[in-house]
Write a structure and sequence with these properties.
Number of strands: 21
Number of helices: 19
Radius of gyration: 23 Å
Distance between the termini: 43 Å
Structural class: alpha/beta
């Protein structure tokens, strides 16, 4: 690729919702995205099936669906072991499109994208996303000396603001102000990088809208049951104000990269949190499929489980009860399960979709369900019951779709996917789950630290984010309407006249492109397909994993 080739700027805005973004552009509150769309267009961008940031950003990077790139969520039960796998970039199969660009000899600038820690060296600059343990840890950025310099100048490059505590205290103004300041600081960093460093491809990321929507959605949504009409107007405007602020930072980037083609995208949309997943654990018990050891209480069980799983020498070295390869987290989320009497389980209470695993012999360490007819019979039972689940309080349908995963897929390596994915009905906060057999649960699952808290997460992920494009090599004359997140990588590579890895599952959005890119046939390369990651997955130190888990818990993902 020529160093004089037209540049491409891609800005990822976590959780920018299509409907809300469209509305704010129309109201004049996102003028910078509006001016981009005026010379291009705005599309609905469909997320991965589970709408998890952990799987969506690798799908954005590789053009592969989660079952193919191998990262289904932030954590998952580890086949054959009493621990959870905490995923990072070394678990990812497939080559990121910026790696293809870098390998071509072009310069790249990639910063903040989730699930990129530990980073790989590139021809340019690479800064890991939120789940890097620290801005100075090995693998947090490349080249290391420059990353340390940027850290000294702009502050912590691992951009994360824990607003959960503020939400619990009702300090909504404080949470908003800290998040606005975070976006401004990140904008300062990105403007500096884009203006002062050479690049043909820049890929940058703003997470702040996602944080605000998770915990402060109810302030701006009159339909949310926790919305208070007496809230001061400036707080009722919290969510739109955050969109407006990120749009301002986008405008600064557009101003310093006026010669570039631009793509602005999000990993998923957002809306009112239905809270359906918090009832699955108790529902499985009510259905007679799971049994929990309640007598000892979570705290004692977790301590005993963690101590039995972690060798004494490691506990002493760590100095406190830390996660060792996911063992303490396993104890926290699965430590009270009575495995000999449990046929199906779930280990997440904060995700937008419910995830159910069968306690399968040969896969789970204490499996009791045999493969074959017994397994499939249980899958069919759960699928049938959950698909017809209702909210006991309203008798309305609670589930939009149940999808079989897990054993239906056969990629190389361990399968971390759940056996069933439950997508809940949107538009209302659920008060429980009831299935046709009569089993019901109206008690949300909380871990010990949360038992006296309200369900804080008032906003959650929705299927449709945004893809906005503009620039000399984009054509806005033919409305496209909708695309998938896996389409971004092949479209970017095609626009830059580079080969696309042959295993890519997304398509080139030729309809968006002007000539000659519009009619140029995509070039697929086996060489690029074979050039993906080959590292052995790394396990962070106990201290590093504890910090990553703290952030995930702070975002309500655990």
């Amino acid at each position: 690729m020529s160093q004089k080739a037209t540049r491409l700027l891609i800005v990822g805005i976590d959780a920018a919702d299509y409907e809300l973004t469209s509305s704010l552009i129309g109201a004049g509150r996102m003028p910078n995205l509006g001016r981009l769309v005026d010379r291009g267009q705005l599309l609905r961008l469909r997320s991965t099936i589970n709408m998890s940031s952990a799987s969506a950003w690798p799908s954005f990077a590789t053009g592969l669906h989660p079952e193919n790139h191998g990262i289904w969520d932030f954590t998952a039960p580890t086949p054959g072991h009493d621990r959870l796998t905490v995923f990072n970039a070394t678990h990812r199969r497939g080559e990121a499109f910026w790696e293809v660009v870098s390998n071509s000899g072009a310069t790249v600038l990639v910063a903040g994208i989730m699930m990129t820690y530990p980073v790989r060296p590139v021809n340019g600059i690479m800064i890991a996303g939120m789940l890097a343990p620290s801005p100075v840890s090995t693998g947090s950025g490349y080249p290391p000396d420059l990353v340390r310099e940027l850290h000294s100048r702009f502050g912590n490059l691992v951009v994360y603001e824990d607003i959960r505590g503020a939400a619990l205290r009702g300090d909504y103004a404080g949470a908003l102000q800290r998040t606005l300041a975070s976006a401004k600081r990140l904008g300062d960093l990105y403007v500096h990088l884009v203006r002062e460093h050479q690049w043909q491809l820049a890929v940058l990321y703003f997470p702040q809208i996602d944080w605000i929507q998770h915990y402060l959605w109810h302030l701006s949504d009159p339909e949310h049951p926790r919305h208070d009409a007496s809230t001061p107007p400036e707080l009722r405007d919290t969510v739109p104000a955050m969109y407006e602020a990120v749009d301002g930072e986008l405008g600064r980037l557009l101003d310093v990269s006026a010669d570039a083609n631009v793509m602005v995208m999000s990993d998923h949309g957002a809306g009112l949190a239905h809270q359906g997943a918090v009832y699955l654990r108790g529902l499985l018990e009510a259905m007679g499929l799971a049994t929990y050891k309640r007598r000892a209480g979570w705290s004692a069980l977790a301590r005993r489980a963690a101590r039995s799983l972690v060798p004494a020498r490691l506990r002493a070295a760590a100095g406190r009860k830390l996660a060792v390869e996911g063992q303490l987290l396993y104890a926290k989320l699965l430590g009270d399960i009575d495995w000999p009497r449990t046929r199906a389980f779930t280990c997440r209470n904060g995700t937008v979709c419910g995830q159910i695993w069968i306690n399968l012999k040969g896969r789970q360490p204490h499996g009791i369900v045999a493969a074959g007819p017994e397994y499939w019979g249980l899958v069919e039972l759960l699928e049938s019951e959950l698909a017809a689940a209702t909210d006991p309080a309203t008798e309305r349908s609670a589930v939009r779709r149940v999808t079989r995963r897990g054993l239906a897929m056969s990629p190389p390596g361990p399968v971390y996917e759940p056996d069933l994915l439950v997508q809940f009905a949107q538009g209302a906060v659920l008060g429980g789950l009831m299935v046709p057999s009569g089993a019901a649960n109206t008690t949300p699952w909380r871990n010990e630290q949360e038992r006296d808290e309200p369900l804080l997460r008032t906003g959650d992920h929705r299927p449709y984010g945004i893809l906005a494009v503009g620039g000399a090599e984009f054509d806005g004359s033919t409305p496209v309407g909708e695309a998938e997140i896996v389409d971004v990588a092949p479209t970017a590579l095609h626009l830059l006249s580079l080969g696309i890895p042959a295993q890519t599952q997304g398509r080139v959005l030729a309809e968006l492109l002007a000539e000659p890119a519009h009619s140029r046939p995509p070039q697929f390369t086996e060489e690029a397909a074979a050039a993906g990651r080959t590292e052995t997955p790394v396990a962070p130190s106990p201290q590093e994993e504890e910090e990553v888990i703290r952030r995930l818990d702070g975002l309500g993902y655990l």
